[in-house]
Amino acid sequence: MDKDRIQGAAKTTCGGIKEAAGKALGDQKMQAEGAAKKLEGKVENAVGGAKDAIRELNKDIRKKN
């Protein structure tokens, strides 16, 4: 598992918490920051997934050779 996937999951979780806290407190800025952090985490998680896929593909290619 790539470190980007772990960091992305953490950012997604923290962003969701911050977004919920902002919504509960009526703080639109905090809510928007949380949503942005959550999106950043999803993107980072996707990048990590792509790296994992490339790594697996590379392993498969090396096995065939």
Question: Would you write up a description of this structure?
Answer:
The protein is mainly alpha-helical. It is 92% helix and 0% strand. It is built from two helices and no strands. It has helices spanning 3-25, 28-64. The radius of gyration is 16 Å and the shape is rod-shaped. The mean pLDDT is 94.
The figure for the number of domains is: 1
Q: Termini, distance in Å?
A: 24 Å
What characteristic shape results from the CA principal axes? rod-shaped
Number of strand elements? 0
Low-confidence residue ranges: none
Structural class: mainly alpha
User: Topology as H/E string?
Assistant: HH
What summary fits the major beta sheet?
Answer: none
Percent strand equals under 5%
The average pLDDT score comes to: 94
Radius of gyration based on Cα positions: 16 Å
Q: How many helices in DSSP terms?
A: 2
Proportion in helices: over 70%
Spell out the key features of this protein.
single chain, 65 residues, mainly alpha, rod-shaped
List the SSEs and their pairings.
Layout: H1 3-25, H2 28-64
Helix pairs in contact: 1-2
Structure summarized in a few sentences:
This protein is 92% helix and 0% strand. By secondary structure, the protein is an all-alpha fold.
